[in-house]
Amino acid sequence: MEKTKIDIVYTLCFIKKGNEFLMLNRIKSPNMGLWNGVGGKLEPNEDKFNGIKREITEETGLIINDVVYHGEVYWYADSSIGGMHVFTANFPENSDFKAPIDDIEGLLAFKTKEWLFHKENKGVISNIPIFLEKMMETPDKLRFDFYYDENENIKDYTFKKL
Question: What is the pTM of this model?
């Protein structure tokens, strides 16, 4: 598939607490019923850093000012083409946040790194175990391009340094 210029309008963050990540099981499309990080759409003229901090607070109630930018993820499918900025953050040590929490966006709960990256895990968005593990292993910013078949399964992907 030929790559076209895609304006990134989404952000996604994986909030770490020890060996676990705070994940959201979405109750709305897209990706209804699947576990994902927290994030969402950038507002007009909002930069990616302010956007992800706003989304973290809106979806979790947490105020996190230190986020780590890891790169970009693009997807190419019959139903959707798009891109997102990917971040990680550390869970605030002094927080009284208790999970699981049933939120307007879905269920927030901590999931272990082993569960999240398990190759047979069908409950997490399919590209997360691929891009997140590689992004976390390197200090380089990476770009991933995922190509999907007509059944929304990953048929191929590429990655490179930004």
Answer: 0.93
